[in-house]
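Handout, page 2. Input:
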Amino acid sequence: MNKILLFLIFTISFSNSFSQDISPNVISSAGATFFSSSTNINWTLGELAITTIQNSKNIISQGFHQSNKTTSIGELPKEIGVIHVYPNPTSDWLKFEINFDKKRFVLVQLFDVNGNLIWWEKFNGKVISERTTLKRLLDGNYFIIFTVDNNKFIQSFKIQKIQ
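Output:
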């Protein structure tokens, strides 16, 4: 019994004494990092595949250089309003419904995966319901971004256009 207890204590202390720290690293064909007093620029070249897996504490990303600082855009708080976008995936049209707590200004923008602005429209109201056609767009992924009250709140949705 004493040998088993001693073995367990030794194993637990040994496993806790050796640990590693994983810092963000990128393996690519080319790249560099430049620093100035107010800016840090990192770039890489030759990353062919894109995959990102994340949870509340970790990000594992293949294909994009990840910096140590993460900037996130907060979604629209539920007490301000709710935005619904459907159907997704879609083939012909996209509908969005917005219900706010009071009358608000909204800029709606549709972007392709390269960041090109495809369509935009401004709205003002408490309840907004619009339907837009996507027939002229090629199949692929798009992003619809809702900017509320001049950048005070931003919410985005990934849309998939299929045949």
